[in-house]
Amino acid sequence: SENNANDPCPIARSLSFAGDAWALLILRDAHAGLTRFDQFRKSLGIAPTILTRRLAMLSSEGLLEKRRYSEHPPREEYLLTAAGRDFLPVLFMIGAWGRKYRGGGKLTRFFDAETGKEIKAVAVDEVTGAKIGTRAIRTVIPEKR
User: Fold this and answer.
1) How high is the pLDDT of residue 12?
2) How does 62-76 read in b/e, with b if 16+ C-beta sit within 10 Å?
């Protein structure tokens, strides 16, 4: 994957993993409680070689942590890190966009476990309280040294 680590734009920096559909689906499944290679493979119908590469990349990017759960035979599981858990709202925003513009037919729905109400994700600016996309945006690029 292309390394944008020095790009001043945080969107570009994130695309090293977030621009990959398999990586996003692995993160979706990890949030649903999957942790083991065979669980991801079965859920996604992904080739083992591709899954191995994506799990390694998500681990090196700090979104998953590989942990051994069996010595004989040696087996690992993949657990969400804080960075991986913090990615859930991003997945929900992608899903909200998809529901609006790629909807139709039967779609998976997500509910708040406490209230039982369906989750409707919106991105809100913490400072103004405004929905992102409803106000003009000014971009400030840091000066090169």
Assistant:
1) 86
2) ebbbeeeeeeeeeeb
